[in-house]
Amino acid sequence: GAVVSQHPSWVICKSGTSVKIECRSLDFQATTMFWYRQFPKQSLMLMATSNEGSKATYEQGVEKDKFLINHASLTLSTLTVTSAHPEDSSFYICSASLDRAHNSNQPQHFGDGTRLSIL
Amino acid sequence: QQQVKQSPQSLIVQKGGISIINCAYENTAFDYFPWYQQFPGKGPALLIAIRPDVSEKKEGRFTISFNKSAKQFSLHIMDSQPGDSATYFCAASREGGSEKLVFGKGTKLTVNP
Fold it and tell me: What mean pLDDT comes out for the span A64-78?
C-alpha cells in the first residue's frame, strides 16, 4: 500500500516551454502533498507544500509564478514549470501522506521522481 | 534555521560489516525521525522511522538508535550487503511525519563484495 506515482519519469524539452508533472496517490487519499527538487549528489530541497482545495505554501526563495502547483483532488497534485530554462533542469520528486484529518502521524511516501532536462 | 546534520558524507564497508550513519538535529519540536534509502534515478523509500518515546527500533538488519538528550539518532545496518549500496538520508519532522520533512545531506554507502 501507500504508492505514489509520478508522471512523466523523464522529460526533455526546449527552453521557454512549460512542463507539467503529475503526482498521484494510487491507493490512498492525501490532503497534503509535497514537492521537492534534487540536484545531482545533493539532498532533497522542499519547494512547496500542496494542500487539496487551497493554495500551495511555497518555501522561501521558490518562485510561485515559476512553479505552479495545483492540488485539485485528494489523489492528484500537479507541478507546472513555466517558461522552463536550462537552470530548471533537475530531479523533481513528490511525496504524499495519508489524509491527516482522519489519520494523524502518517509517514510520507515518495514518488520515483521526474527528471527534467531543458535544452 | 531548522537543520539536520548528517555524517559521514560517504561510507565504504565490506560485505558482512556494520554500517553506521549518524544524524543530529536542533529543533526539539521534531517528533518523527525517518530514514530513507535512495537508489540512483529513484525516489527515496522509507526504510525505518522512530519517535522520541523509544530509544531503539529494529527492523530486520536495520536499527535506529535515538538519544533524545543529545538530540542525535543513528542508523545501523548489520551484515551489510552489496545490495545496500545506496544513498541514505535521515530526516526529521513534527506531527509524526505529516508536516514537512527536513532532510540531512545524505550518506553514500558502498558495500564491497
Answer: 92
